[in-house]
Structures are given as C-alpha cells and as structure tokens.
Specification:
Blueprint lengths: L1 E9 L6 H10 L12 E11 L4 E11 L6 H8 L4 E7 L3 H18 L5 E6 L11 H11 L14 E3 L8 H14 L6 H16 L6 H13 L5 H15 L8 H15 L5 H16 L4
Parallel strand pairs: 1-3, 1-4, 4-5, 5-6
Antiparallel strand pairs: 2-3
Length: about 290
C-alpha cells in the first residue's frame, strides 16, 4: 500500500526547519539562514515497516514562514494537514515557549487530533542551551497520550535533533510516518471543507493596519486564484525576492512594491479587469498600514 500525506514543519524563524528538511530529503546541510517566504513544498518517500507489511508513504512537506503574525497563510496551509513536526531551537528559550503560545493553538484550531512530533534542534551546540531537551518530552507526552504502543521500540514523539550532524533527523520523520500509517483513513471532503472555512475565518481576522497583517492578507488573497498552492507560492517567492522585501520586518513601501509586482505576474494569466480589481484592493490594504 502506498499513501501520500501532507505534513507541516513549524516553529519560529531560524530554528532550523528548512535545514532539517534539507538534511532529511537531500542529506545536506547549509550553514546560512535564508528566511522562508510564504511556504515551501518538498516531497520525500519513506518506507514504514509494520509488523506484517510495509507501507511506502510520500511526505508532502510544507515549510512555513516562521514569523509570528502571518495567521492567514499559516492557517490556510494547515488546512488538509495530517501531521506536524514542531521545532524549537535549544539555544533560544522563546522558540520553545512559542510552540504552546502560538503554533500549537493555531494548528489545532484548524485541524483536530493530528499526530505531533517535537524536535529540539541545534543539539550540536551543547553548552549554549537555554532549555533542556527533557522539557519538550513533557509537552510531547501531553499532546500524544493517545499514541502509546503505536511506535516501535527505539522511536519516540520528541527528539533532540541536529540538522548539521543529522542526529535524529531520520527518526523524527520516521516516527511521524508510523503515526500517520496507523491512523490512515480516506480523505473526508467534509472535514477538508470545514478546515478551509476555519482557515478563511482566521485570515479575515488579520489586522490589516499592521504591516505583517496586511502582507499576510495580500499573500492569501493572491493564493486564492490558484488551484495548486505550490505554484502560487513559487510566484510569490520570486516576486517578493525581486522586491527586496524582508518578510520578517516588512515596510509599507516594500509591500506596495510587492503588490505592483504581483499585478505584473497576474497579467500573464488573468484578464485586465480582474488584475486591476486585485491591484486596487491590495493597494488599499497597503495604504491602510499605520506608520
């Protein structure tokens, strides 16, 4: 049996989410920080050995921007998610605290009862820790009490990981794979519709007078015009990079430039009337940002 599962890897900026994916998928490590714009998608096959059979699971891995406040794009990406890896940086205690303060509540507001695996990343920086790996074991136990007995001996729901050395990276994804295989069921279209409606409601609650709230709304608005989110995100990354905008600290001027570039991109596949309406709506959001 072969199955495909959408998973998300979430946590604050610079905790090493993209590096963990790169290590897992390509067995590579890049010692530099590049902020993820919107979300990025990577796929990887994994063979899960069960007691009497094996299952090939294709992970469709969504890597989200780690800046808090992009509630709309975060919630929109969470819809349809079947499992998550939550990442904290052992050298920054606030990234650990933000898992329960921001990331988990938002995720579980959109999806219900999905498997969660926790990773304390940058374990290679021993001596610089601001919290202990054992701290995340307690959180993992609270959110995964129902999975007792599912994981094979040697696997767990929380790990100290290092994208640099590769320590426990394979185990992290394999553990999530076992939980996903054990809970496999056909996609419920009603459930997916419900999750999308929840995500839409969260998006509408964004504070558009704040630069991040306005940019979040613009990103979600742009993505609505695509059936395949991966294509919309590819265009977004290109146009935001071209504008030179820092998504972690967006400015009103930079957002207006992004809006202009997105309109140029939409001219390739939308009629002039639609492009103009989208441009005017997004310009209004950008101009409404308080200085």
């Amino acid at each position: 049996m072969d199955i495909k599962k959408k998973i998300v890897i979430i946590g604050d900026s610079a905790v090493g989410k993209t590096s963990l994916i790169r290590r897992y998928v390509f067995n590579q490590f890049q010692d530099s920080y590049i902020s993820t714009i919107g979300s990025k998608v990577t796929t990887k096959e994994c063979r899960i050995k069960r007691p009497h059979h094996s299952v090939v699971i294709t992970f469709v891995i969504w890597d989200l921007i780690g800046r808090e406040g992009y509630k709309g794009i975060h919630a929109r990406t969470f819809a349809g998610t079947t499992g998550a890896i939550l990442v904290a940086d052992l050298t920054r205690k606030e990234t650990f605290e933000n898992l329960e303060r921001y990331w988990i509540p938002l995720l579980l507001k959109v999806v219900d009862n999905v498997p969660l695996i926790f990773a304390c990343n940058k374990s290679d920086l021993e001596g610089k820790y601001e919290f202990e790996p054992e701290d995340i074991v307690e959180i993992a136990g609270r959110y995964n009490g129902h999975v007792a007995g599912i994981l094979p001996i040697g696997l767990a729901t929380s790990y100290s990981t290092s994208a640099k050395t590769g320590s426990n990276v394979e185990n992290t994804f394999e553990s999530l794979g076992h939980l996903l295989v054990s809970s496999f069921e056909s996609q419920d279209p009603v459930k997916k519709l419900y999750e999308n409606l929840i995500a839409l409601g969260i998006h509408r609650s964004s504070d558009k007078s704040d630069p991040i709230g306005a940019l979040d709304s613009i990103i979600v608005d742009f993505c609505k015009g695509f059936k395949d989110s991966r294509i919309s995100m590819l265009i977004l990354r290109q146009e935001i990079a071209r504008s030179g905008l820092d998504v972690n600290n967006p400015t009103k001027e930079g957002i207006l430039k992004v809006v202009e570039y997105l309109a140029e991109a939409e001219c390739e596949f939308k009629d002039e009337k639609t492009v103009l309406a989208n441009l005017e709506r997004r310009i209004d959001w950008a101009r409404g940002i308080r200085e």
